[in-house]
Design brief:
Blueprint lengths: L7 E4 L7 E5 L30 H12 L3 E4 L21 E2 L2 E2 L8 H28 L5 E8 L2 E2 L2 E2 L4 E4 L4 H12 L6 E3 L11 H7 L5 E7 L6 H19 L23
Parallel strand pairs: 2-3, 2-6, 6-11, 9-10
Antiparallel strand pairs: 1-3, 4-5, 7-8, 9-11
This protein binds zinc ion (ZN).
The site of zinc ion has 5 residues, from loops.
Amino acid sequence: MMESFKPFEIVSGNLSSGLLLLCDHARNTVPVEYGSLGLPESEFRRHIAYDIGAEALTRALAARLSVPAVHSCFSRLLIDPNRGEDDPTIIMRLSDGTVIPGNHPLDETEIQSRIKRFHAPYHAAVEQVLDSMIEAGTAPMIFSIHSFTNAWKGMLRPWQAAILWDNDPRLNRFMIDGLRRDGELKIGDNEPYDGALKNDTMYRHATKRGLAHALLEVRQDLISDVSGVESWAERLAPLLEEANAKPDMHVVRCFGSRTDGSAKKES
Ligand SMILES: [Zn+2]
């Protein structure tokens, strides 16, 4: 019998708060029948399996602000919730130099089965919470939390954090400017990746619905322990509260998308 594995978790919070937090790459877990996808266990402690620190930061912010959050409970090595169903990289065969034996070869039935069991229920949960929040009276802002590695292909990254975005400047611009007020911080603006990717999480839930949103990436070593998480929650919470108080952040408005399938993204 199929072991029961919950593909997502909803952290409860005030549905009329006007803010929903998302964490696409919260966990490194896969259901027991997938074993370790043929990889050594050590691979599951790396960024290729999940965003280190992102779930803890999401939970810390949800608690401070009394807002709801949705996070996935499956490793992106199984299937990446931040990719469209038609994106060939939705299930990685190779990630950061590591071949994933459990993902190669992969037939269409298995791809569809992973979409149905993990990817679709996560997105349905996000949609359901957004619907409930709109019903509660306020179109919410969406704040999506990720983390990136200190280095990529041998290059050290200069940013402590970054905001990745497509066209809607409302929360994105506000967060970039807000974080840059701390002169000690170097904040990427659509670096190291372009935040425009068709059918990714922000595209499907925020861009298409016309909800103000931002995607944050924090360098993983800065949120890999409790004190790091607390200090980032302390930095972000007042900015999110200030943004949330602006009426414009709760107007449903479509800014369109720069995506035509050519944008590059590796978050
Ligand atoms: Zn991520």
